[in-house]
């Protein structure tokens, strides 16, 4: 009986160590510094991870080799989803949702507030926490996939958010500065950047584009 318990706890320790190592590996490879979920797919990944480790670590019927294979499959799925979301805007929005405009030129969009699950109290509280008390004074308010608010007041000539990230055009930010996709692509082409997929980041400052490309 003693040897059985010793063997059982030894296998649990091995599985726990493997789980911790695989988790550290995925975090480092995916570029995330912590486990705080920033969107829907991140939350699901955390749930699945908890189910894998919690459901198999104490199950003596699952061997260490089977456990390693399960974690390997999980790592492949996570990294595959990350690549898809980074390189395909449509799939990224399908998996994580997309930002919702709550305020546009001082007008409140109640339907989008409801879609985002924000009550009038929640929205007012978030605006007050950011230092704004009246939505009529705001040019644009957008709720991101992680629930954070992107707030642009009137008179903001240089938006604090990029126009292009990972080759994807941020149309909401373009609208804030009164531009469109055609203007952006033509301006970038004039600067020698014709392939958006090779552009890492584009920022707008004092009427000029600051470009970082691969």
TrEMBL record:
Membrane topology note: Multi-pass membrane protein
Annotated keywords: Cell membrane, Membrane, Transmembrane, Transmembrane helix
Superkingdom, natural source: Bacteria
Domain named YetF C-terminal: residues: 87-204
Residue intervals passing through the bilayer: 7-29, 64-84
Keyword NAD in annotation: no
InterPro entries in the cross-refs: DUF421, UPF0702_alpha/beta_dom_sf, YetF_N
GO cellular component: plasma membrane
Subcellular location: Cell membrane
Domain (YetF-like N-terminal transmembrane) ranges: 9-84
Similarity comment: family membership: Belongs to the UPF0702 family.
Name of the protein in question: DUF421 domain-containing protein
């Amino acid at each position: 009986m003693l040897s059985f318990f010793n063997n059982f706890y030894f296998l649990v320790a091995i599985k726990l160590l493997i789980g911790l190592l695989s988790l550290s590996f995925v975090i480092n490879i995916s570029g995330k510094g912590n486990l705080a979920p920033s969107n829907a797919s991140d939350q699901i990944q955390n749930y699945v991870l908890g189910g894998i480790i919690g459901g198999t670590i104490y199950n003596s019927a699952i061997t260490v080799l089977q456990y390693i294979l399960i974690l390997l499959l999980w790592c492949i799925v996570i990294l595959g989803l990350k690549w898809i979301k980074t390189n395909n805007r449509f799939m990224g929005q399908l998996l994580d949702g997309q930002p919702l405009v709550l305020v546009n030129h001082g007008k409140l969009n109640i339907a989008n507030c409801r879609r985002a699950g924000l009550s009038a109290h929640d929205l007012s509280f978030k605006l007050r926490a950011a230092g704004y008390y009246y939505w009529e004074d705001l040019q644009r308010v957008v709720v991101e996939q992680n629930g954070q608010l992107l707030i642009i007041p009137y008179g903001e000539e240089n938006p604090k958010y990029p126009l292009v990230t990972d080759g994807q055009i941020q149309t909401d930010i373009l609208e804030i500065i009164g531009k469109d996709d055609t203007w952006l692509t033509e301006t970038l082409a004039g600067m020698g950047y014709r392939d958006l997929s090779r552009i890492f980041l584009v920022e707008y400052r004092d009427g000029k584009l600051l470009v970082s490309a691969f």
